[in-house]
Amino acid sequence: MPRRIRSSASAPSAAPSFALPAAARRPLRPHTLTLAVSLALAQAGGHAHAAAELDATAEAAMPMVTVSGSNGDGARYAAGGASASKLDISLRETPQSISQISRARMDDFKLNSVNDVLAATTGVTVEKVETDRTYYTARGFDIVNFQYEGVGIPFVFGNVMGDLDTAVYERIDVVRGANGLSASTGNPSATVNYLRKRPTAQLQASAELSAGSRGKRRAEADVSAPLNASGSVKGRAVLVQQQADSHLDRYHSEKTVGYAIVEAKLAADTVINIGHISQDNKTKGGMWGALPLYHTDGSRTDYAVGTNTSADWSRWDTRNNTSFVELNQGLGGDWQLKSTLSHSNMASRGKMFYVYGVPDKASGTGLFSYPSIYRADNRQTVLDVNASGKVTLGGRQHEVSLGASWSRSRLNDISLYGRGVGTALSRADDFTGAYPEPLFDAGSDGSQYEDKRKTVYAAVRLNLADQLKLLAGFNSTKADSSGTAYGVGAYKKASKTTPYLGAVYELAPNLSGYASYTKIFNPQSEVDGRGQPLDPVMGSNAELGLKADLLERKLSATAAVFRVEQNNTAEQAGKINGRNYYRGINAESTGVELELSGQLARGWTASAGLTRLSIKDGAGQATRVYVPRTLLRSSTSYRLASLPALKIGASLNWQSEARRAPEEGFVARQPAYAVLGLMANYEIGNNVSVALNLDNVTDKKYLSSLYWNQAYYAAPRSASASVKWTY
Length: 727
Known about the structure:
The chain has three helices and 38 strands. By secondary structure, the protein is mainly beta.
């Protein structure tokens, strides 16, 4: 029987996600967006400012942000350092591999969802196990560390639900490896840090309309302006409405996103930000689970790209409302105190149809039904207080950061099982959605689960010499969970202090060598055959590399080798009374990563990352083979010198073979494949641009994931066209 809060290799699990009130779900009308922008401009005296362009690969040297200015010439400035720690240091000064996806790159290649961004990021695989639920991996292990503005959000339930939109973010950073400086718990995979859009000192506004294949329509508006005469109070608002059909039969999705933030300068050294983000995803015909991968004789299944296991009555709605307050207080000298309080209310409402079993190749029999209603509410509160600044010791200036965080996550969910669970289905290729909707009164089960975490942390960057910097820190975390999950006690208690150590040596004015080491600690919810929670995951990450700033700091290059150990990772071991139980396994990942990003020449930007890794278990055998061993992530854009209004670009993502072998004689394989994308953007005057984007240009057929024993096919060739007004 599928469980809902566990990561499972064979059965779907469900966890909470995102939405808005019903009144906010009406489709946006294009003239409404245009009128709103026009009124804002008129009230400001009609003075329009052109937003400066940020190169599509602002991952180079120092992070960049888009700013407004009257010259409209693409002015840029450094926005601070990398987000691997709470210290103000640059990418080259950080002893870990980091990728940064800029707002401009998201805009150029229409990376409108978090899945799109991470699929284009060096070393990351996006495991779309279902239409509305996704896992991510890096360096062979699941990514469970997510942050907003450097503040960690405990990822208690293992997966992301819903199509998370990127319109509210200025930049997304991915720090690979175990990020011991800013993440208290997690896997030695990566940390994803979302940096939200912020209010601007001058009025800027934009509206974009787009239409694409399979009925996709999207409207987006973004307005930022000072809210009083002195400019001490500023605000920004973002609104998105999107709806689309799909290459999958019967699947339709609607998404509404709203974001508002107000920044107020309360005193010369006191700034407060108050904001709220809402996202509502509504889907019809979404998959719970996916297609079987092989027949009873071991041969691979091969369905049409649009095959969908859902029923006509299937739906899955997710909702997320997050409010946050940030207070930045100057403490004198070079010291700052930052306090962040956030509260999220995530909800999921689904009426779903799961198909399980292994079909016979000749007769098509062997598949069975599993209808269910699922309702979940997850409330999460996070408080983080951090002080950072500089101290002088031994005639040199050093940087210090210290703080504490507290979080509480509560899950309440219930499953209502439909009549007819286990009913044999007709031929495996007869996925028409015609299965009748049953009464959902055959039984129920659920969870009441609470997770609390308390952390203290500290980091110091010692300026030992002009060429040598030492970065050291620790996280000390206590995690407590209690409650029940589908009839099993979910009590656990664990605590651990994990160290971090890194060093950067400047070999030349534009070249640095670095080394880093950190341990990891991650409590688990999965249970063993006795129903007892597994002990926490333990492990470490060691990395050695070179970083260079080239072409007058317009281009950055990184080369790294790494070794990751992860012990006692939960792996499905079987079923008892229809429920999964797990065992802990040990795994080691070793590999190399190469990344190049920035400006190659005037008007020409590029980003390319290559990852090659090996993953073995405690016996030295290959494990987690559903993770491809080689990944290439690349994109480039070029502004034509003879026609500067036109910018063209391409992206290419390639990965090596992946496979899944759940038992002897059954092997599912996804051969190596590449996905090509093309884009063109043409500026019509100073304020209007039009764009055309093509995805999966070669119309490659491939499975979206082998993370589970089921999968579905990724989208075939598609196109979208858009027009954007910028003021």
